[in-house]
Amino acid sequence: IDFKLTKEGNPVELLRNLTLTVTYGGRTEDISQVGTGTQSAVIIGALELCLRHRASRGIRLFCVEEPELFLHPHAQRYVADLLRKIAEEENNQVILTTHSAAILANTDILDVVRVERDENNGTQCRRVPLYYPHIEKVQRILTAETCEMLFADRVVLVEGPSESILLPGIAKVMAQTGNSREFSFDYRNISVVNVG
Question: pTM for the complete prediction?
């Protein structure tokens, strides 16, 4: 007995005719007709399936673009944990892009690569050197709040919560009296990070 999923034996044909539906509240709808939060939940489910039913051979590459989109912080952390578990499996590689400090908070800093466009030199990739002597100190201060600095152009390190509240407050007052962009920490992509 010979079994074929498609007439020509071409898997692309199968994918071309595949539809994904979501059923909730007694209604079944095409995935393209539901909200982005529901679509993200389906993606989370697919990731969980990958963990449960992993193939035993070959290299698996998971590329995920901005997994945090349309997810609340708890779901972002859950997705980050799933991706981390997938990456820990033998022969797995996970590459993701993110703008979420929550996604980066529990990620090994040595696994983070900052990619940015430079007007003169094109695209630049930067990361912490593999043998950075203060890596343990850096790992200790990285939280969902402090990981914001990984996205900043400039970082002001302060010793306590007072300064982390006061400095942006002073900048806002100065912005009201002068050029608002010149003094805006957010416009200038400056993070104030409490490391005290």
Answer: 0.69
Tokens 């389906």, located at residue: 42
Task: Characterize the bridge pairing of strands 21-24 and 27-30.
Answer: antiparallel
User: By 3-state DSSP, what share of the chain in percent is helix, strand and coil, each rounded to 5?
Assistant: 40, 20, 35
- What is the enclosing helix (H) or strand (E) of 170? helix 161-177
pLDDT tens digit sequence for 156-180:
999 888 998 898 888 888 888 877 7
Contact status, residue 67 vs residue 92, Cβ threshold 8 Å: no
Distance CA 105, CA 165 (A): 21
Residue 150 CB-density burial (10 A; 0-12 exposed, 13-18 middle, 19+ buried): middle
Which residues lie below 8 Å from residue 88, measured CB to CB, with a gap of 6+? none
